[in-house]
Amino acid sequence: MKIIELAQIQELLSSVDLFSAIEAGFVSYSAGKAVIPPVGELLFQNPPGDVHIKYGYLLNDRYYVIKIASGFYENPTLNLPSSNGLMLLFDQKTGTPLATLLDEGYLTDVRTAVAGAIAAKYLAPKHIHRIGIVGTGIQARLQLQYLAKVIDCREAIVWGRNLDKAKQFQQTITGKFNIAVAQTIQELTSTCNLIVTTTPSTTPLVYADYVQPGTHITAVGADTPHKQELDSIIFAKADCVVADSVSQCMERGDIAHAIAQKLIMPESLTELGDVISGKAPGRTLDEQITVADLTGVAIQDIQIAKVLYEAACRKKMAASNMYQ
Amino acid sequence: MKIIELAQIQELLSSVDLFSAIEAGFVSYSAGKAVIPPVGELLFQNPPGDVHIKYGYLLNDRYYVIKIASGFYENPTLNLPSSNGLMLLFDQKTGTPLATLLDEGYLTDVRTAVAGAIAAKYLAPKHIHRIGIVGTGIQARLQLQYLAKVIDCREAIVWGRNLDKAKQFQQTITGKFNIAVAQTIQELTSTCNLIVTTTPSTTPLVYADYVQPGTHITAVGADTPHKQELDSIIFAKADCVVADSVSQCMERGDIAHAIAQKLIMPESLTELGDVISGKAPGRTLDEQITVADLTGVAIQDIQIAKVLYEAACRKKMAASNMYQ
Predict the structure, then answer these.
(1) Residue A117 within a domain
(2) Which residues form the domain of B265?
(3) Predicted-complex ipTM score
(4) Residues in chain A whose beta carbon is closer than 8 A to a beta carbon of chain B?
(5) Rounded CA gap, B108 and B85, in Å?
(6) Which of B2, B67, B227, B306 is catalytic?
(7) B13: closest CA among B313, B312, B314, B319?
(8) Structure confidence by residue, pLDDT tens digits, A254-276
(9) CATH code: domain of residue B50
(10) Is A136 helix (H, G, I), strand (E, B) or coil?
(11) Distance between CA A74 and CA B284 in Å, rounded?
């Protein structure tokens, strides 16, 4: 079994085409060509933490993947990051373990950012005048980094609950973007036509009143039943609501709240893979409002693990022959 | 993270007290001190295979454990064993990955055999005149190996569906046991007062008519809803029916069949951990018939992974400092 460590993963990431892999994954998932059981969950009280096990495979593929991702929110008091985790890749025909990607949770961040960029690529209006980033963490940074690969706009504005953190975030975004700091979330909402929300908020941050016609919003922060970043009225106002996984979004994330409030019907949801494949229309007019709710699907983990493993095999970069 | 390979695991096994660890695990589990979510399952059609993810933790312990075990039943045609798998050990306070035990499924075999020996230790009659082993695979061999640590009797008889394989099995049991080959399962059932069934059968093998008073039976083979090794009437005839996990045995294994046929009531079941702790009586008279149905509980995986990891830390035997 190959052991691929974080430094090697980061090096490999620059050489692989994550967009093609993850887009293909979403298309297969929406076409019913993936087997993705319900997420396994392990909860801890003292200290508080949660572990999610996402796993599955593409039919007629070479692999199956099991991802373990943890969040222990008091870790920063120990000078440890909250998130950790790893991905395991196995041979679909024999069960043989092929690789452990010791990514420390980083690939979850990356595949989430890539999905955000994919949503923008397929759903954003043609001309984006300003990108609004809600949140100031690693996901906020990665969303901008991957959006830059598919969107020409280099004007951005960031809002965070903590103004100092927003200013720090502004400092870290060097070069590519001309980035402002929003004093209020309304300033961001009313001046951007591509908005990405990346927070663990449990109360709405972005309100429908301020969302302009011709805006696309991607919400990636809410991945549990309790989290919520978008005012549910946004969904009623939207012309097209896209879920990474319809079944998963009916149980967790922003769409789940809008459905519970009967502001949208499950039948009106479109799945991202169907937009990518062209099976579903997505945005049809520039003045429409579109919303993508991304709760994170194992198909993304499968695809990112797979391309990295194959890249490592090509480059023979795995840690040591001892484990091959 | 420590990577502990099979050869090292096998070396470490001789230096650890698996009985104490797994008995303590069962006691804690039955006392409600373990968090064990439902088993995750991934099924494959072409070629047929199944993967089980068992995971959980003991409250106030240092670790949580995730075990991945696969069975791909056409592997022998590729000169590969059907079973494979690994165990992952994490820090319960931070989510930090601590160790990967690349046991290739061996620890699942071992912890199953240890549980069988524990069941015999607590439930078998005082004097055992002959041990009957149903099945001729690795689990049959390991059951004898671990029974020898808790039972004085060295007379044994083996039965297998394939007589040649039973004879081969007889050859592999050297030294410790005087082992015969049964021509019929009835010969085994009627001459033994400790019987262990270790097959993947989906139809009953051991019938109630032949079970003698004063016999203990441990069934370890049936771990899915469809598998069955014991005639359900045995459960009606038994004085004491013990499950490794009452909740799990109500859904899978031999007990599930007996409950479905209303031959026993769920309320009459005793959990192994309660027998070990003395909270439940188990066998009270030598002439009683007792049955233990072991479907395999994550608590066994947690405990075996834990003692091996701690032994590896003591012996500094992990593969390479590179991964620590």
Answers:
(1) no
(2) 112-296
(3) 0.89
(4) 1, 3, 35, 37, 40-44, 46-47, 49, 51, 53, 55-57, 60, 64, 66, 68, 70-72, 75, 78, 80, 83-86, 88, 90, 92-97, 100, 102, 319-320, 322-323
(5) 9
(6) B67
(7) B312
(8) 999 999 999 999 999 999 999 99
(9) 3.30.1780.10
(10) coil
(11) 50
